[in-house]
Amino acid sequence: MTERADAARNRQALLRAADALLNDHAPGHVSLDQVAAAAGVGKGTVFRRFGSRTGLFRELLAERAARLGAAMDSGPPPLGPGAPPGQRLLAFVDELALLAAENIRLIAAHERACAADPYSDPTYQRWHRHLHALIGELRPDGDADFLAHALLGGYDGELVRRMITAGGVARLRLAVRDLALRVAGVDHVA
Amino acid sequence: MTERADAARNRQALLRAADALLNDHAPGHVSLDQVAAAAGVGKGTVFRRFGSRTGLFRELLAERAARLGAAMDSGPPPLGPGAPPGQRLLAFVDELALLAAENIRLIAAHERACAADPYSDPTYQRWHRHLHALIGELRPDGDADFLAHALLGGYDGELVRRMITAGGVARLRLAVRDLALRVAGVDHVA
DNA sequence: CTTTAAAACGGACCGTCAGTCCGGATAGTA
DNA sequence: TACTATCCGGACTGACGGTCCGTTTTAAAG
Question: Which of helix, strand or coil describes residue A35?
Fold first, then answer.
């Protein structure tokens, strides 16, 4: 069963409104009342569509991450399947750095909204699975699960903000690339 | 001017009460009203002593971290000054793993209470400065600031909880040790 | 073009919680 | 004992996430 027309319209309006508000307010200071008002709908609609504050921000992040997700699952190498794992890893951390840089405020807001259960976020899980698999190939001896989480820790909202403030996107890209190389074992990659 | 006797007594009572409540409730579900009630004082006292929720949890963490802080600043090697940086690094991440394992709930609660400005926490800063200096010595070429944050990311509350649930403290210690070795450059350390 | 029922809507309402405020109590000093 | 700076308690406020239910809209069937 497909979503009713007004429902779909309101969903979009809410996502756009939340997005817009994120640019004008501190990450933790966007209330759902504000989002509803900005979208021109009632508050109940927010919860009917997204279930909770967490749900709203998860969906917002999922939207922004959709392109990367597709590219990494079925796009051309080196990001997509086909390239050796070391190259895929580097391509991925690099793309993720760009994504994070372009969405710092969303990431910060998402982080807080999902703080109660960060690892169950679908987007995070997807990234983690990807890294887990690649690291597992590159370093069968290491704790790939932990290392994947550690790499993703490099995209923490506040950390990204600081890196970009002092050093720009270039610094962030170099830093996560270097970390990935170290974590995965530079020998296997080079 | 020193703190009045009743003030000091209440400060201790509040810290003990918060500590105790942390063991019985989910990390985000300890309200300051509860803490005040459990300590047998009024709510106003909580704010007079600690300024805010954030302040309370910062002080609680500082208390638990005091011993490690002293050992790392002026204790015997390899944790304290005197040992080569690689050994100090390993000793530190190992001790921090133990500290984290013993205080999982506090760490999770602290994380949330301080989420608005995590890097300004005195304890976090102290740890970061220490790692920053050691990594800077071991890898003058790397982004020591970023790498120090990345290492500390390995002690995220939820991550620690998962590691210990599946693998115990031993797994956590091995994992952070391995990560530190990689980050610092295994050649310099071994 | 009706009819109709499921689906969606809005916004008042609720419970919780961090943080404030001030009249009253108390500790330490002279 | 008298005095004052300090501290105390807990009622109060404002904000926010989440719920509820009477009303409206959609869209499919007749």
Answer: helix
Choosing among 1.10.357.10, 1.10.3720.10, 3.40.605.10, 3.40.50.720, the CATH entry for A52-189 is 1.10.357.10
Interface test with A, best of B178, B181, B186, B188 (most A CBs within 10 A): B178
Q: Measured in angstroms, what separates residue A5's CA from nucleotide D27's C1'? A: 10
- Is A119 in Cβ contact with B158 (below 8 Å)? yes
- pTM equals 0.95
Q: A46-52, long-range: CB within 8 Å, 24+ apart, which pairs?
A: A46/A14, A49/A7, A49/A10, A49/A11, A49/A14, A50/A14
Domain B53-189 has CATH 1.10.357.10: yes
Look at the block and give the residue holding tokens 């918060």: B18
- DSSP state for residue B76 in the 8-state scheme: -
Mean pLDDT of residues grouped by 10 in chain A (190 residues)?
A: 94 98 95 98 98 98 98 97 97 98 98 97 98 97 97 98 98 98 72
> Residue B154 and residue A159: Cβ atoms within 8 Å?
no
Q: Best residue in B146, B151, B161, B169 to probe A by mutation, most A CBs within 10 Å?
A: B146
